[in-house]
């Protein structure tokens, strides 16, 4: 009884601190080419990382120093999407935060001048209240698992109220789709009528059809990595054999990173393969630096060497280069690379390893600049 009373008193104290401290929850990235403005965080605002415990911290979780992050106050981009709309709404409501270390050397004016045009995709976080009661309940598996982070909402403020409605709509849609295995959704207009994207998707569909017929691919769901412009961070989409988006995770697409030297083949090249490859059944552990990745086999004459040179799909920061592999947010597989993210990481790859990728036979199509050049 004493231990229960202690926990209850701790929770009351911790929940009171939640009005002063904000959790930093991974949200995604602002795309390169976006114009942003930033301001310094206020001294009274305290932040913490809800994925790491620290008994010396007032919240019991790792404190994030105020001077290590900045508020992102506005985001403007020519690329219109639902994700961008969410980022803009959170920015207006003072809920969008970026780590200073996330900005590249070319983007330091984002911090020093408070304005810049990003030259790289930049990870951002939602600054939100943290529900310590739900955290403890989830820890002991009591009741339905709920989101631990809730927006700091003042419904009397029209801007905050509109952002809350938008956030709830997105969350509700994702939750509903996640409950329907392989529920289909339409591509947004900017992709449905994008000639280059559609060309790449047709390449992938043809490769899927051919390799499914020969038995090299067994899954009806395939992965399409959109790297057409050669960026460090691409977008990983999940499609079915009819070219429809399928919901195997709460988000579609998710970010994915490529190798330090772009795309290609050859031992020691540190390049990510072009075109069609296929996953082997997930069977850890694998020896070497990356010991828990998903093994891959090449399906084209130009990428047959990938298994021999150890190209994998593994847990990584999707905003950091790999040594030629594909990096997806999840449990890091190596202590020697990748970038630790504030507020933890969405465990997308962990979910895929226990779901879609568990039995192998899933085609991955890397729509690289080389493949894009084939589109007339």
Keywords:
single chain; 376 residues; alpha+beta; L,D-transpeptidase catalytic domain-like; 2 domains; 19 strands; 25% helix; 26% strand; disordered N terminus
What's the name of the CATH homologous superfamily of the largest domain? L,D-transpeptidase catalytic domain-like
Apparent shape: globular
Helix content: 25-40%
Describe the sheet with the most strands: 9 strands, mixed
Q: How far is it from the N-terminal to the C-terminal residue, by CA?
A: 73 Å
Let me know the average pLDDT: 79
**CATH fold-type name of the largest domain:** L,D-transpeptidase catalytic domain-like
Return the domain count. 2
Helical stretch tally: 9
Give the percentage of residues in beta strands: 25-35%
SSE sequence, one letter per element: HEEEEEHEHEEHEHEHHEEEEEEEEHEH
Q: Tell me the structural class.
A: alpha+beta
Please state the CA-atom Rg, rounded to the nearest Å: 21 Å
Which residues sit in consecutive blocks of at least 5 with pLDDT less than 50?
1-16, 141-183
Number of strands: 19
Q: What's the CATH C level of the largest domain? A: Mainly Beta
- What's the architecture of the largest domain, going by CATH? Beta Barrel
Describe this protein's structure.
This protein has 376 residues and is an alpha+beta fold. It folds into 2 domains: 2-178, no CATH class; 184-372, L,D-transpeptidase catalytic domain-like (Beta Barrel). Helices cover 25% and strands 26% of the residues. It is built from 9 helices and 19 strands. It has helices at 2-17, 82-92, 109-112, 132-139, 158-178, 189-192, 195-213, 348-354, 369-372; strands spanning 21-30, 35-40, 46-53, 61-64, 69-76, 96-99, 115-117, 122-130, 149-150, 184-185, 222-226, 233-239, 245-246, 254-257, 275-279, 294-298, 312-315, 326-328, 363-367. The strands form 3 sheets. Strands 1, 2, 3, 4, 5, 6, 7, 8 and 9 form a 9-stranded mixed beta sheet that branches. It has an 8-stranded mixed beta barrel with strand order 11-12-14-18-17-16-15-19. A hairpin with a 6-residue loop joins strand 11 and strand 12. Helix 2 (82-92) packs antiparallel against helix 5 (158-178). The model is unreliable at 1-16 and 141-183 (pLDDT under 50).
